[in-house]
């Protein structure tokens, strides 16, 4: 039995978890900062990094008490070292390094985006090669997964991520932050065919994404049609984004001969997206709802595999705001 402590602080959620042998979640907790960032209409990076500091020891003590495990039972410390906000990453990384030194346990670096995809496969056996789809507030990435730890990028956003686009359109519609769940809620009452929005195309990279032009189109529509129903705008916007995503997944399936699809990230909670994914011709693996948002269980789970196959990481490990696969 290998017990891994996971730490997640890439953005505005603080997560700490204990996971056994890469799959069995012993305890995990996430403390969201969303209400503290609401007045800014998005994540305020400096505030995010400051709020992680008191939250980390609080959650660490909570999972130890809840699990009944002792400090010395922990075999390694897995930490998300990127991609993410620099200050937020530093908060988690320094806490993890301190534990690693104090407990004399190995430190294990984990790629946050890769962990989102791993979350979709915890306690499951997807067939490889697979198409990996990461849809979150900070990332929109399409990958070919040959095996856990072996990836090739097929496409990614060249500007805003899907979740970020939802947040910004929500602000245009007079909604609060985070905007994704609110867009989904009012879109359910709207007509998705009323406004013919289109996502941007990336000529040199046909499987990549661009949503900045779509956001501008929504803004212009609101200016030109001030009496338009927010529900119709939201439904048309959401449908455009998801149809673009599904089209590119379908192209990737034909191009690669993949045998399954793994989806991770907070946007994977959207029921309309889940419905569209079920129309694809291959098995689709989604994380349970509690593992779609940023969390430390996925960090600890993937950390176990990284420790087994790659070994410990050096204490000189630095945060990486961007990581290339």
Characteristics of this structure?
Nucleotidyltransferase, domain 5; globular; 2 domains; 325 residues; five-stranded mixed beta sheet; alpha/beta; single chain
Question: In a nutshell, what does this entry contain?
Answer:
This protein has 325 residues and is of the alpha/beta class. It has helices at residues 34-37, 45-67, 86-103, 112-119, 162-172, 180-187, 212-224, 230-256, 271-277, 297-310; strands at 3-8, 13-20, 24-32, 76-82, 107-111, 130-135, 140-147, 150-156, 260-264, 284-285. The chain folds into two domains: 3-117 and 291-310, Nucleotidyltransferase, domain 5, CATH 3.30.420.40; 126-286, ATPase, nucleotide binding domain (Nucleotidyltransferase, domain 5).
Word description of this protein:
The protein is α/β, with parallel strands linked by helices and 325 residues long. β2 (13-20) and β3 (24-32) form a beta hairpin. The chain is 41% helix and 19% strand. The strands form two sheets. It has a five-stranded mixed sheet, with helices on both faces. Strands 8-7-6-9-10 form a five-stranded mixed sheet, with helices on both faces. The chain has helices at 34-37, 45-67, 86-103, 112-119, 162-172, 180-187, 212-224, 230-256, 271-277, 297-310; strands at residues 3-8, 13-20, 24-32, 76-82, 107-111, 130-135, 140-147, 150-156, 260-264, 284-285. The chain contains ten helices and ten strands.
